Amino acid sequence: MRLPVAFAAALALVVSFTVFATSADAGAGPLRQVIAVLRDDVDSDSIASEHAYRFGAHVSHVYGAVLRGYAARVPERVIESLKRDARVAFVEDDRLLWATDTVPTGVDRIEGDKSSQLSGDGAGSVGTGVAIIDTGISPHSELNIAGGYNCAGFFFVNRNAWTDGNGHGTHVAGTVAAKDNGANIVGVAPGAPLWAVRVLSSNGSGYLSWIICGINWVANNAAAKGIKVANMSLGGGGSDDGNCGNSNNDSMHKAICNAVNNKGVTFVVAAGNSNANFATFTPAAYNEVLTVTAVADFNGQPGGGAVPTCRTDVDDTAADFSNWTTPGSADASHTIAAPGVCITSTWNNGGYNTISGTSMASPHATGTVALCISSGACAGLTPAQIVQKMRADAAANAAADPTYGFAEDASSGGTKYYGHLIYAGGY
Predict the structure, then answer these.
(1) Catalytic annotation present for 168
(2) Annotated catalytic, 40?
(3) Whole-angstrom Cα distance, residue 315 to residue 295?
(4) One of 51, 61, 140, 168 is an active-site residue; which one?
(5) pLDDT tens track for 106-158
(6) 71-110: b or e for each residue (b if 16 or more CB lie within 10 Å)?
(7) What are the residues whose beta carbons fall under 8 Å from the beta carbon of 254, sequence distance 6 or more?
(8) Active-site residue among 85, 94, 101, 134?
(9) What tens digit of pLDDT does each residue of 41-61 get?
């Protein structure tokens, strides 16, 4: 399934950024949608107010937790003057991002039924809070939705309107944490409290400023609401400058770095669905996140040979759409694999749906991180240490049981690196 260019959710991380179209404002000339990132030692609110008066900036979001700055529509003619303000670190054009897409299988394949929660036994519950930064989450009998926040809009946004209008976020949420209640499905971390952080519209796309708003909300509320893990099944073009976005003016990278390093939130993201090196896709390329590639699995069991179900692919191989990295690269050090083909999970209106994509792989890893934290196996670890524990434990499991992996996993020696298959059974 192919989506229009931009950032995609479970619908296809075939992405390129598009700049917000300009429009005329009475007497101001064309307007440009930008994110003004300020120096870390200044106050976002006061400068946003000053710039609104001084430059005619129409401010839509103000950030203070993950970075100092604001998003606004600003007259084109004053952009250079805005950049020259000594308190401004950089100005970045806003752009569209999409959710990463395609279809489900996976809790059985990563042995969630052997975890501390024994997913599928009809009991058990995980207490670790998980933020789903996506299209929102719709109410569903299988989901423990603790609340949410809406960032999908520019002005007069109803912050409580975080219900999913697309289905993607609800699907992701079910894979992470559908209750172990004897109903249709069960998640990797059954019953974990879910926070619906809506940053994508009903068509599965969202602006960069909305996504930073979501990351900012997670960082501001992580401690109070017990949010330890955030899933981002979305992405777009970009790269990692190795400096948290400060060298290449990447505000999303700066925001994620601060949420990880200062707020202790582990970010798990989809690698993308372009069968390409994710070094040119963000947030997948950021070294601070756990990036998840997709595996095709049609029966929940290792060994290969299962007949394809909802789409054509080969059982126990890397999904034919999945992005990858190269062996020995910096990105290989934060890469892991999970099931992402023909995954069944919760959907809007209390229903269920079967879809595919690295968007579906990522929540398997998110649920596994939540399990690790809840079980105590990740106690006292930083997000960076949790990322490495996921990878080390997956590698150890693959060494102990060579039949567990898939054809192109990290043991294969191929030219494309997908990582080892994540292992939930040990937490």
Answers:
(1) yes
(2) no
(3) 8
(4) 168
(5) 898 898 888 888 787 777 789 999 999 999 999 999 999 999 999 999 999 99
(6) bbbbbeebbeebeebeebbbbbebbbbbbbbbbbbbbbbb
(7) 37, 66, 67, 244, 245, 246
(8) 134
(9) 999 999 999 999 999 999 999
